[in-house]
Design brief:
Elements (H helix, E strand, L loop, with lengths): L1 E5 L2 H11 L6 E8 L2 H14 L4 E6 L10 E8 L3 E8 L6 H12 L4 E8 L5 H7 L8 E6 L5 E4 L2 E3 L2 E8 L3 E6 L4 E14 L2 E5 L2 E2 H9 L1 H5 L3 H5 L2 E5 L2 E5 L1 E4 L5 E3 L8 E7 L1 H16 L7 E5 L7 H10 L4 E5 L1 E6 L5 E3 L1 E8 L17 H36 L4 E5 L5 E4 L1 H7 L3 H4 L13 H12 L4 E8 L5 E13 L2 E11 L1 H15 L9 H18 L3 E9 L1 H8 L1 H17 L6 E6 L2 E5 L6 H16 L2 E3 L2 E3 L2 E9 L6 H17 L4 E4 L2 H22 L3 E10 L5 E12 L3 E3 L1 H11 L2 H23 L5 E5 L2 H4 L4 H12 L6 E6 H6 L1 H14 L2 E7 L5 H5 L6 E4 L11 H16 L3 E4 L5 H9 L4 E2 L8 E2 H12 L1
Parallel strand pairs: 2-3, 6-7, 20-21, 35-36, 38-40, 40-41, 41-42, 42-43, 43-44, 44-45
Antiparallel strand pairs: 1-4, 2-4, 3-8, 5-10, 6-10, 7-22, 8-9, 11-24, 12-13, 12-19, 13-14, 13-18, 15-16, 15-19, 17-18, 20-24, 22-23, 25-26, 25-29, 27-28, 28-29, 30-32, 30-35, 31-32, 33-34, 37-38, 37-45, 37-46, 38-39
Length: 947
Amino acid sequence: MRWFCCRRAEELDRWIREHSSSLDETLFVQVAGNDEEAVRHAMAAVARRWPRAHMMGMAGPLPMAGETNLAVGITSMMSSTVSSLVLPADEFDCPDGMAALIAEAVIHHDTTLLLLFTNHRSALPSLLRHLPLANKRMAIVGCALPEGSVLFSSDGRLKRGGIAVSFSGTALRSHCVAPFLWEPIGLAFSITKSRDQQIDELNGQKASLYLERYLGKEFIERLPLSGVEFPFLVERSGRDVCLPIVAVNRDGSVVVRGHVHNGEKVRFAYVHAPSFYWSVRDAAMQTVKQPARGMLLYYSAALSGYTRPLLDGVAAALGQAALFPAVEVLMKDAYTAVRPAAFAAVSLTETAASAENGLSLPLPAPPEGIMTLARLMSTSSRDMERLHVRLQMSEQRYKSLFEHNTDIVYSMDLHGRLTSVNPAFEQVLGYKKEEILYTNSLKYIHPNDIPRVTRYFYRALRGNVQTYHLELPTKSGERLLFQMKNIPIIVDGKKVGIYGIGHNITEQKKAEKRIAYLAYYDPDTNLPNRTKWMELLSEHLEKAKRKRRKTAVALIDLDRFKWINDSVGHYAGDDILRQLVERIRRVLPLGAELGRFHGDKFCLLFPLKTEVEAATEAALRIVREVARPIVYDGKEFFVTASVGLAMFPDDGEDEHALLRHADMAVNMAKKGGGNRVERYCARMNEEAMHRLEMGGHLRKAIEENELFLCYQPIVDVHTRAVRAMEALIRWRHPTLGLVRPDEFIPLAEETGLIHEIGRWVLKTACKQTKRWQEMTGDDQLAIFVNVSPVQFQHERFVDDVKQALRQSRLSPSCLHLELTEHSMLRHLSSTLRAMDELRKIGVGIAVDDFGSGYSSFHYLKRLPATILKIDRAFIEQLHANASDEAIVKAMITMGQGLGLETIAEGVETPEQLNRLRDLQCTYAQGYVICPPLLAEEVMRYVTEKQK
């Protein structure tokens, strides 16, 4: 393979004469020039000498490199083939069909290089995309020529169309360098309106305005050549895409080579001179390393501008290189899709060829001015971009702060006129921007606030940030409270206005008032709560001490009010509670302070000079007023109150002592049945200390096993056979002796020890009964165990029963739990659930002290009880009182009607036992039958009865 090139017409004639006999190989001749006749003459001269040569010529307004008006390149192939094809102009409208035509005619399996030349510029990118690559080594270089240029083939002149030339051969190698040298400069512009390849608007303005402003009118006049020199760049999929500017329309739109989309950002670009220099140098160095004597270099019009001196120096240095101009140069290979390039340097090599390598002249260093200018533009562009990014971030932060701030934000000029408002201002105050801008801000505040706001305005202008509260009326008339902040606006060291920021604290103030209210007042009754009332009490006692006056404190506890909550619900209970508070208020002495301690407990502070008689009388009025029936939802409810009084200074000289003693008094009133008034006395303190000591003793009694069980037989009234035993708990204290159950059981309930005691009773009684059954052989012997109301309401009670039965192996039918009417009706819904579960496992339920409660007959049919135990109060006078006899007879008859067995408690005389037998009572227990026995005494009693 041999390369030849010349750059003047006279050189071509001389070169042909010198080499007319030395070249018989396959030739490819390229000719380019500005003058059509010169190109025609050159091609005719070559054709005469080598008629079989493949030729391509181009003439027109071409940006020729160096001091030449003609460029001729001759490639002599020794073992490779050259194929060429003329492309008709009318076929370019169908790129896929044209690609198929080229592939069939000139592309072979060993094609290494395909050159395309056409003055049908707009169709070239699409044609390259459709062209196939025959192998991984193949490269395609496309050259778009300017409008008005003429192509020549071996067959003659082509006004429109193209020429395809391929180089093929197994020994043929190619090296192609096609760098992308455009570098963005300046700011990015958003495409706000576009269609296909036309940009109508950039940043909302006509696109042509930006071309004229940044590139000048001369740039527009030199289009389309200048449009490749300074194209648009757009970033797509992480890489820059070149959009050469083709034309400017009369309507101000700009046509580019490539499709665009709204929202994309474009930037102007230029050829970076240092990059161009080093790219050419690398291409030249690569060429001289190969056994070839030159290269084909196709360059874009982008190099005909300010980089022209550098291009001319390259042309001089590359002596054996043929440089051919184009408007656009496009490249495609196995590694990259179609892309524009500033130039494409191609060197072809045949392995059989050899030649001395070297550049005609060393590559000249680029002009210092161009290199400096390129560096200046690059650095300035990067600085500008960084500055622009910071400015954009600053603007976005400001916009976010201003536009999206939930506080009202506005600005005023030096005269107090509104110059801007944010959306929150419009939304909160109800004014539209258009109706308030450039109006005086004082117009929108209350006249009384004008002097104060004016002072804040001028203080802010002096550089002092002002913060204050201000009520602003909305357009609808609603008044809102704001925390305002005035900040001076300073531009170039001068104050030009004021920024105002208003935080709406209307709801916050309401919430603060609400929180303050809830901190000191009860929301249900609007009474002072414990905290507030204690403050009032402390202040009141200070005044009483200072003036040496008497006063009184009372605690009011509503008796069994929880029953109302359980029966009608807490909401209705609160409503009833409010009615009771209003009643109490109506009978209070003038100047008295009523407060709510918690739940259904209230505190009352009497006025100064209150004597004990007046305090007692006022407390009695409260008790009588509360006791009156309350009607709610068509039903009557009865509530009573217990009141405890403590006098200052007799019963205590500080608030804590008075309240402690009043609490003792109210507890004493409740023990007495409630609905009464008790005044504190020293004996109550002694009783409280005694209860405290007894609580300690009881806890120790559990640990020291001081508790034990006695058992009282329950016998058949008719046969006197032992039916069951009732377990009775006893406590023998080492020093106090035997402690009565009615003294320590309430104490166990108060302290919570009842659960531990109750579990022990259940387990012990069940185990003992099972032992008796085994000893007597009577597996029907049953045990009755009393259950405390507190114990029964515990969530684990049913599990405790199951565990006792499981551990003792006692049949559930042999266990009967005694519950009073009071404990059953205390929490009726939960009671029914627990009793139903006990009934399912077979445990019996006995209603203890039957007849002592007022609701027994009403609820009895709902309770899954199995036994009625008639209260001893009806048995005492059974033989002497006809009324008691009638009541007992009615109870027995009712029990029989409901399928329940009856047990008479407290049978003390033979007459009572005989009368119960006549009334058909089933079972009885009492001292006349047998007193309570210890566990070891029971077997002897049972054995005697069996004889």
